[in-house]
Design a protein that fits this description.
The protein has about 325 residues and is α/β, with parallel strands linked by helices. Helices cover about 35% and strands about 10% of the residues. It has a 7-stranded parallel sheet with strand order 8-7-6-5-4-3-9. It has a two-stranded antiparallel ribbon with strand order 1-2.
């Protein structure tokens, strides 16, 4: 059991996210690292597994290895390393691109991964603009191949200004195709520096719409830590991640880059006491918000607004008007 003496966290698992190579069969417009650096040879990779196994045995936690890239299948010794992970009894997951059915069957013969995550960037036209012609259809064809083999199939989206309004529709499209749909905000480094993030007020409104959409589509998942701002103000249980449970990279979720150097992507920091996504929604004068805050008017979920659905006193900070405006919009998606 790992225990954090500062924050009081405890866990029985340890996850290593391992970027085996930067080599890839795609050239996505938001890619944050296309460098061509030397990868760790198989003998070095096995020593890393030895270290992970020894650490987990000493701490009595279950090891989990998530293999990523680039495209992890482009690592020269991928299947040798994969077999080692499986034969050591470690949980193994894949973050990658669709692969031919023969390669997927080869994985299953060794031992099926717990999940195989692929990416989409929006609906077909936008996705193929970012990831290349035909990528959308290949992804949709690949998802049932995973399910037929009993492999969980989550889908990740990189959120930008240009695809934000497509995320909820993609989630609806994948309702019966994927096990989970989540998104991360764009990291504006590498080639991603040429793309744009949404206006923060627009993003605040999107977050609330996403929470409402999730009520009727449980395939949509929470990953962005900024959701916890809204959840905290509504008195809801926090989701995982840094703002929910503290930094995982310093606890039980480190990342191993392909070239063995430590990197850290820039993060959005919020000034103390300022919660832009929350306040953006509260300041909104759009027809959507006006309808949501009009007594008796239906919300996006079809549930009429009840003035006392969420009392302003639920806000730990007591700033009733802002927090209750958000609560009105999201009253029906509160957790019990």
């Amino acid at each position: 059991m790992l225990e954090d003496q500062t924050l009081g966290r405890r866990t029985s698992s340890f996850v290593l996210q391992w970027h085996l190579t930067h080599a890839c069969d795609m050239h996505c417009k938001h890619c944050y690292d296309r460098s061509n650096l030397r990868v760790i040879r198989l003998d070095g990779a096995l020593r890393i597994l030895d270290d992970v196994a020894a650490f987990c045995a000493d701490r009595e936690v279950r090891p989990s290895i998530t293999l990523s890239g680039g495209n992890p299948f482009f690592y020269p010794w991928f299947f040798d390393l994969y077999r080692e992970v499986v034969e050591r009894g470690m949980r193994v997951c894949i973050l990658g691109n669709p692969v031919p059915e023969e390669q997927l069957d080869r994985l299953v013969e060794i031992g099926a991964p717990t999940y195989y995550q692929i990416s989409l960037e929006g609906l077909e036209e936008h996705n193929d603009c970012i990831r290349g012609d035909g990528a959308f259809r290949r992804a949709l064809d690949f998802l049932p191949m995973l399910r037929e083999r009993g492999i969980r199939a989550p889908v990740m989206i990189t959120l930008t200004r240009d695809n934000m309004d497509q995320i909820i529709p993609v989630g609806e499209l994948l309702r019966d195709r994927a096990d989970r749909v989540t998104f991360n905000r764009l990291s504006q480094v590498g080639e991603g520096a040429a793309l744009a993030l949404p206006d923060i007020e627009e993003y605040g409104r999107f977050m609330v719409d996403y929470m409402v959409a999730r009520e009727s589509n449980p395939t949509l998942g929470y990953k962005d830590n900024l959701f916890n701002i809204i959840r905290y103000e509504l008195g809801m249980k926090l989701t995982g991640g840094c703002t929910g449970h503290g930094c995982g990279a310093a606890f039980n979720f480190p990342c191993a880059p392909a070239e063995r150097r430590c990197t850290r992507l820039p993060q959005v920091s919020l000034p103390p006491g300022k919660h832009p996504p929350v306040d953006a929604w509260a300041r909104s004068t759009t027809p959507t918000r006006q309808r949501a805050t009009a007594e008796g008017a239906p919300t996006a979920t079809g549930v009429p607004y009840a003035p006392n659905a969420v009392a302003a006193s639920r806000s730990p900070r007591g700033t009733g008007s802002i927090r209750s405006s958000i609560a009105i919009r999201t009253a029906s998606c509160r957790e019990a």
